[in-house]
Design brief:
- The chain folds into 2 domains: 1-101, no CATH class; 108-203, no CATH class.
- It is globular, with a radius of gyration of 19 Å.
- It is α+β, with helices and mostly antiparallel strands and 217 residues long.
- It is 20% helix and 14% strand.
- It contains 5 helices and 10 strands.
- The strands form 3 sheets. A 5-stranded antiparallel sheet has the order 7-6-8-9-10, with no helix packed on it. It has a 3-stranded antiparallel sheet with strand order 4-1-5, with no helix packed on it. The chain has a two-stranded antiparallel ribbon with strand order 2-3.
């Protein structure tokens, strides 16, 4: 995720509702139901997210959790809007100066670093066979190919897959030495692999890695 400095304590939801009140935005109305009033704008988006640029800086889960004096994960939750209390201004909506992780997708910078580390720790390097699985409802059209088979050296091409809004939900090597799991409803991915691979992921400054409690090592 990314953040910029600000004196504001507003959440994304409070900003949106103020903009609607000031007639800077129009409310979203479906079948005569004002969804803008009935729902909360979390600030979370779907699909690939790139660094916003400008004054935004990388913000790590641990740094943000320590700032908020909350655990990275609440008991029984995975990383996401319910697993981490995100905003002093309003529970369920991130601060307006924070661009939170996307739901259901790794961000573009992290995918690039992840593929590099996986390549370094795979049997045949860039020639390692791998499979990418997409949940069909993340594809457009929905009947687009949802299972892709190729070489790890071509995995960066998935950044520009025109049929998919984000990263694969499952991504694994054909020798089953590593597995990347990205749930469509969550804001983080789980990576399984060798002790050496996990150590390399933790050591990579371009990746934001945390250990999940209760996961065997």
């Amino acid at each position: 995720m990314y953040e910029r400095e600000t004196d504001s304590l507003r959440s994304h939801d409070e900003r949106e509702k103020q903009q609607i009140a000031d007639r800077q935005l129009s409310p979203v109305v479906v079948n005569n139901v004002d969804l803008s009033a009935a729902t909360k704008e979390t600030g979370v988006r779907l699909g690939w997210r790139a660094a916003p640029g400008g004054s935004y800086q990388r913000l790590r889960w641990r740094d943000y959790a320590e700032r908020m004096s909350v655990p990275i994960l609440r008991d029984g939750y995975w990383p996401g809007i319910n697993g981490l209390v995100p905003s002093p201004a309003g529970a369920g909506s991130w601060p307006e100066n924070v661009e939170p992780p996307s739901e259901g997708s790794i961000d573009r910078e992290s995918w690039t670093e992840l593929v590099r580390v996986l390549t370094d720790h795979s049997r045949d390097g860039k020639l390692t066979g791998c499979i990418a699985f997409y949940t069909p409802w993340t594809l457009s059209p929905i009947d687009a190919p949802f299972l892709l088979n190729g070489k790890l050296g071509n995995a960066l091409a998935l950044l520009d897959n025109p049929a998919a809004i984000g990263s694969p939900q499952n991504f694994w090597s054909d020798d089953l030495k590593w597995f990347v799991y990205t749930d469509y409803d969550l804001q983080a991915s789980r990576i399984s692999g060798s002790v050496e691979l996990i150590a390399a992921l933790r050591a990579n400054a371009g990746l934001d890695c945390e250990d999940l409690p209760g996961i065997a090592r």
